[in-house]
Amino acid sequence: MNDGLPVDPVSLREEVKSKYREVASEPDGEYHFHTGRPLARRLGYDPAVVHALPDAAVESFAGVANPFSLRALEKGEKVVDAGSGAGFDCFVAAEQVGPRGRIVGVDMLEEMLEKSRRTAAAMGLENVEFREGLLEDLPIADAWADVVISNGVINLCADKARVFAEIWRVLRPGGRLQFGDIANGKPVPESAVHDIDLWTA
Amino acid sequence: MMEETGFVDVEIGPAYDTFGQARGEDKARRFDVYGYSFLARKPS
Description:
The complex is a heterodimer. Chain A is an alpha/beta fold. Helices cover 38% and strands 18% of the residues of chain A. In chain A, strands 3-2-1-4-5 form a five-stranded parallel β-sheet. In chain A, helix 1 (9-25) packs across helix 6. In chain B, 23% of the residues lie in helices and 32% in strands. Chain B contains two helices and two strands; from the N terminus they run H-E-H-E. Chain B has helices at 2-5, 25-30, and strands at 8-12, 33-41. A two-stranded antiparallel ribbon of chain B has the order 1-2. Chain B starts with a helix and ends with a strand. The model of chain B has no long low-confidence stretch (mean pLDDT 94). The A-B interface holds A 30-34, 42-44, 63-67, 69-71, 152, 160-161, 164-165, 167-168, 171-188, 201 and B 1-2, 4-7, 11, 13, 16-24, 27, 30-44.
């Protein structure tokens, strides 16, 4: 059973993995959402920062908003990206925190982790690392992070209360949560809420 | 939900037309779906 959750978390994860595995390997494919540099422009990322990134760092970007638009990161901050995908937001964060800062991206998809690690190595970023994990169980020590960022991933988790509790755990007191996500202005029918195919459609 | 967790000073930025001109635009319009940036703080 789903323990009161709208859908089975494990089944939803498999659906999400299937969709985003494609985005990692075929970034120019046809999706229901925008990707890559056109999406970064649409979401108001700093054009100079995005322009300076290699294609591999940007092409699989599939966020839904801009975690840096309400507040930029500060030099030296320690940052966790919950659901880091191919690493685009981690690379933007690395530019903001500078070489004294640290970035840990967490993702559940092997293809995304491989791609983001390859890109970080190619960019010579020694303060950016990527770990396998779930948002519901972040592989990060208590109170390690100054900031947790995320972009378009929390909405793909069935147990959002657990995700926010986990983000709370890894943030230090006084730390910030900066994330992008979607919200609907009109009610979604109950039947659709329980239809796992629609969560990633 | 963020405030239920304990976060304070929650801010929400303006809407992004995340799905405009994308293949998922029709579905997004049906439920008025937009992207938003959120900022919140864990109290000291």
